[in-house]
Amino acid sequence: MSSTTPQVADTEATEETLDAPRVRVVISVVGDADLDAALAVVRRQVYEPEPDIVVVGGGADGVASIVSLEEAISSTDSDVDYLWLLHSDARPRPDALSALVAESERNEASLAGSKLLKAGTMDELESVGGATDVFGEPYSGLDEGEIDLQQYDVVREVAFVQSASMLVRRDLAQGLRGLDPLLPPVAAGLDFSQRTRLAGGRVISVPSSEVYHQGRCGDRGKGWREQAGRLRAIVTAYTPLTLLWVLPYDFLVSIIDSLGSLLLGRWRPAVRHVYSWAWNIYHLPSTIRQRRRLRSVRAEGDEELFRFQARGSLRLRTVGEELSGRILSVFDDDQALARGSRRVWGSPGIWGAILAAGVVFFAARSIIFGGMPNVGYTFPFEPPSVALARWFGGWNESGLGAGASVHPATGLTGLVSFLWFGAEGAARTLLTLLLSLLGIVGMGRLGGRMGLRGPGRYLAGIVLMAGPGTALLVEAGSWLSLCAAAVLPWAVRACFVHPHEAGRSKMTHGGWALLTGLIVAAFSPVLAIVPLIVVLVWRLLGGDRASFVLGLVVMLGGLVGLGFMMGDPEWLLDPAQRLGVFSDNLWLVLILIAALPMVMVDGRSRLVSMTGGIVALAALAQGRLFDFGPGLEEAVFIAASFGAALVVSGVLDGLSRNVFRLVAVAGGLAIVVTSVAGLSNGRLGLPPGDDNARLAFAATLSEENGPGRILHASLDKSLIPGEVRSGPGFWYRVLDGSGTTLDEVWLPEIRDGDDDLASSLVDIASGAELRPGDRLAPFAVDWVVLEGPEFVLDEVLLAQLDLVPLPLDPTARVYENDRAVVLAGTTSDPWMNHGVGFSGDPVDGQVRLAVNYDDGWQPDPQSDGWWVTIDGSEGEAIWEGDALDTVLAVLTVALAVISSAAIIVGRRIS
Amino acid sequence: MKWVAAVVMLALAATAFLLPEPNQAQHGENPATEPPPVAICPIVATANRATSVSVLSSVNGEGRLSTFSTGEESGALEFRTGDSGAITIQATDAGAAGISGGLIEMPSDITAAAVALTGQGVMAAESCVDIPAGEAFLAGGSTASGAMFEVQLMNPYAGEAVLDFTVTTDAGIESDDRFDSVVVPALSSYTLDMNQIIPGRQEISVNIEVTSGSALVVGRQTLNGRVAMWRAVPAAQEWWLPIPAGEGPKELLLATPTNSEIEYQIDHFSNTGGLLESYASGVLPPRGVLRLALSDVTLETAAVRVVATGPLVPTLWIDSPTGLALTTASPLDAPLWLLPGAQAPAGGTGTVVILNTGLEEISVDVRSLQETALTRSVVLPAGAVAEVDLVAADGYRIEASGPVVALWSSSLAGQGSVAMGIPVQDG
């Protein structure tokens, strides 16, 4: 029993009691509850003036009996101020009514609920009012079997009170026509509470009004009828706009809840969901009538309901807790982790991550089940030792080779492969999936740091990964763009300081900024400047919490790509090397529709949307104002997607009946839907195909000399792997016969060998060359592959004497050149390529390497035309790279180590 | 600030909307293509027949003759054209044996080659070609009694060639699997013996369509021991054909590979410069063949121009006491012609027939290519035909001040040959 001491009422009719509100008690007969006992306890209520009592659905001596609750309410005289709706299985304490009336008057509440204690227990709490989630799932906040120790004894506004004992203003009850007779008790209480709130009333819980509840009226909120009732309650209460997303979301939650419950060995939830939806469909006409009735008294929007709702789905949270609890219980004897997991499941970030995982699973299903495509600019990693050696100033094997820095992603992918136990194939798939997940979560986290709280910021992650720019780049096969886009929000986030983190060490902030800058720049060197631009725009628009210094630190990460950009400035400047993607004007329109109306909306969401709008539109305009190389191209288009994602984050941060917001939301949703389409191919938007498998004949049919090179040519540059060169009437490039790898995607700057090859191709394409195989032989071109529509090379290779056409591919025309020289060594003593050099049997004299001349080759490098020859007596050709490239690589590693250390040390200091 | 931001967004959107997209990067321009300086020739080297290969060039340069028949080179011979720019080689010196193909890698761009088939009672000549046509037509064959008709397919290239034949005879279109998807492997020569496949046909024409690769197609007709050789050419709508003087049956064979009626008109040029337009005209039935007896027109040197509403191929058929000879007309005229192999054989005669196709009088130099070159100059009125006697040489070069068409013939001991020269377009 509660230790609350009942107040002793003055039995004399004073002036005060005569002015006290008049109450009519309406007792609803439920189940097999003892009505006489209920009447007895009601009659013992200490309240003046003595309340009038009516019984609904039953009869008893001395009290009026009425058939329905609605009739009981409507027949109540206007001199009655309150109706006390009570179940016949409720046993209120004598002061319960007076407490309800007193607190209702004091708090100007329209609806007040009693504290319900389970009858027959040691004051076990049943309800003190509660919150719900957006689906109407009640959340009492009580633990199972929790005893009343007055821990909740404070009058407070709640989302709903139970119908077992509630005091409602008579005029409101008549306006709302009482409880919905189709609903069971808890759902009825929820429904009535929501309608009260939408009608402008306050709903409070009055703990001093204690009622013992026998629970004969139902199953205490459980069972399919309650579930169906909750669904009916939200369909009755919400506006059409809210229902537009709540109902599909609820349906999805029902499915996940059913599946999760099945995993827990429970089949009933699935059946309950089926019954619930079926029941509501059956009763849809009456639900629509209920909505019409509510419309006439509605005074508030759905936001009034949202104020008292928990985030996410309570059902899923419960299932998640149980699942994680079961798993953790294997290791967690004292359930400490399991208790922590309950808090975890309440975090929007977790639900954002789940959404991201779902999206990534859907978007990457072909990758998960069928592997990564090898096409366009997407190719496997080199083994970690080779990749890291190339990164630290090693030989760049792309094309005819060069002593130039490889793309900085080579180093990062080499490191990831190394950490993944040297399994570069698995590392590649894992990195792709992980980064895609991080991209979506990162957008949500960035939105949070910018001050957004709604779920829309996670949907924005989809726009980042498949929005107006990224989708085009990825569709062209740029895997690096996908990765760069995924890391960008984290780099931008590193420039924003959360108010709770303001006191943290600057070292931590700086460390994160530098580390994320390095990673972004490793995938797309120019992109490292975008966070600074975002900070600039944000600050110009009046935003706070963003640091220019941190933006500059992120940009410092661009150092990782410095060697690569210096080695091939055309990558930045030469429009001929562009991927050739152009954004559709539809994106401009959608971004404008979403971002412009936000001018009329107040709050952080406006600031975020406008920042995103300016960044996205500036990037798209940039794409047309200037013609530049692929390095800038990818940065500009990723920035466009990022800006569009910010717009979506802002506009979907909340809903209101503001017409400008509604237009913005429509635009934002259109952006999301259009972006989802870009992910629907199951490969995260990457094109299908495996060029390495198609061209595997080069390695398979190679003899002891090893696979040489493939000359790949086409009218359509997108059919040729990686960067291409312009030839006479076609595009072409030289590929590694053993398979193209990521580090070979970009060709180094043109050197003498490349010039020689170009002039040979001019001669061959003129038709005057009867033995094109001879002309291509010095370049170690073992194979010529012509792709796509027929072109000039098809014509001239009809009439030649030494390139043998072979039917090795159903679409491409393949020619074998058996005159090609070996890559290194001699025909009788070929040397094998081991990634970063060549080795073989020692030979007397010089050995020729079919690579562009560079004096970094050892020992004793000499120029032989465009070739390099080295002393063959050691049986090995070793490349000793440019010291500057090595220094830059080491410097980058040092920066990564420093930034990591700064994060760790900074955390300890703070 | 929010209004400034809105204006900035509108301005950026307008910029992006109004500006055209940057041009897509373009690859380099197509180079001017030119055929490789090669010639492909049919070669017969048997016990009683031999083939000589004549090469004419504008320079004293090096070349190479290789022979092939069964997937590989039978042999090869490197040569130099010498000061005269011409040379005649025996195919057997380049390893030829049996029926095979020859590939000549020429010393310069202005160059031409031809083969002469000689032997016991045999004399035939035909010029070689640089790039075989994708679709060609061969008319004038016969497998009737006393006649043997062979079609030789030669593929000197690195890839196999696949050809489809449409064979039309006096019995209609012949249906036989051996005419479908005929594969000629790389560096191979393959001969279809039409007498085995479709014996007893009086008039055979063959349309050849190359579905992949490339191959040269040559017809060889044997009639009562005499042999004529001519190559398949693409059908066209306008042709020139000089006709040497001489007695005996001389026919103009008109044949079309198309499956529709074709109207044709024949203009006649006389050796006096007279042009008789529309000397003959008519309609050629679908896939039809028509023989016009030229001997009825004149026994003198003459020429005809054939103009038609659709593609056809005119073939000169001479079955005279001086031999059996066939050659196709020329669709081109040019001021410079090379006549490799043109000569008067020892003990025989040889002539070149030149038609001035222009509207003005021109002078024509006829130069023999041998150690001591002989040049004869002829003045030809507009539309006139002249016949000039040849001497022993490796070939002739005809250079005129206007467009001409040149054909040569030779005869020896009851055998004869006739072959069109090779026009040099950019000479």
By DSSP, the count of extended strands of chain B is 32
Strand content of chain B: over 45%
Assembly state of the chains shown: heterodimer
Which regions of chain A are unreliable across 5 or more consecutive residues at pLDDT < 50?
A: 1-13
* Shape by Cα distribution of chain B: globular
Structural class per helix/strand content of chain A?
alpha+beta
Note the gap between the termini of chain B.
76 Å
The biggest sheet of chain A amounts to: 10 strands, mixed
Determine the number of helices of chain A (DSSP H or I, runs of at least 4 residues).
Answer: 36
Task: Give the N-terminus to C-terminus distance of chain A in angstroms.
Answer: 48 Å
Shape of chain A: elongated
List the helices and strands and how they pair.
The complex is a heterodimer of chains A (910) and B (427).
Chain A: H1 15-18, E1 23-28, H2 35-43, E2 52-56, E3 64-66, H3 69-74, E4 82-87, E5 90-92, H4 96-107, E6 111-118, E7 125-127, E8 131-132, E9 138-139, E10 156-157, E11 165-169, H5 170-176, H6 185-198, E12 203-213, H7 224-237, H8 240-263, H9 268-282, H10 284-297, H11 303-306, H12 314-328, H13 336-344, H14 348-363, H15 365-370, H16 384-391, H17 409-419, H18 424-449, H19 456-466, H20 470-475, H21 479-493, H22 506-523, H23 530-540, H24 548-556, H25 562-567, H26 570-573, H27 585-595, H28 604-625, H29 630-651, H30 659-678, H31 691-694, H32 697-700, E13 709-714, E14 725-727, E15 730-736, H33 752-766, H34 772-776, E16 781-787, H35 792-796, E17 803-806, E18 813-817, E19 832-833, E20 837-839, E21 846-849, E22 857-858, E23 862-864, E24 867-871, E25 876-879, H36 883-909
Parallel strand pairs in A: 1-2, 1-4, 2-3, 6-12, 13-16
Antiparallel strand pairs in A: 4-11, 5-12, 6-7, 6-11, 8-9, 10-12, 13-15, 14-15, 16-18, 17-18, 19-20, 20-25, 21-24, 22-25, 23-24
Helix pairs in contact in A: 6-7, 7-9, 7-10, 8-9, 8-12, 12-13, 14-18, 14-19, 16-17, 17-18, 17-22, 18-19, 18-21, 19-29, 19-30, 21-22, 21-23, 21-29, 22-24, 22-36, 23-24, 23-28, 27-28, 27-30, 28-29, 29-30
Chain B: H1 2-18, E1 38-45, E2 49-57, E3 62-68, E4 73-80, E5 86-90, E6 98-105, E7 111-119, E8 122-127, E9 135-141, E10 147-155, E11 161-169, E12 172-173, E13 182-184, E14 188-193, H2 194-197, E15 204-212, E16 216-223, E17 226-231, E18 236-243, E19 250-255, E20 262-270, E21 275-284, E22 289-293, E23 302-320, E24 323-328, E25 334-340, E26 349-356, E27 362-368, E28 375-380, E29 385-389, E30 395-412, E31 415-420, E32 422-423
Antiparallel strand pairs in B: 1-6, 2-5, 2-7, 3-4, 3-6, 7-8, 9-15, 10-14, 10-16, 11-12, 11-13, 11-15, 16-17, 18-23, 19-22, 19-23, 20-21, 20-23, 23-24, 25-30, 25-32, 26-29, 26-30, 27-28, 27-30, 30-31
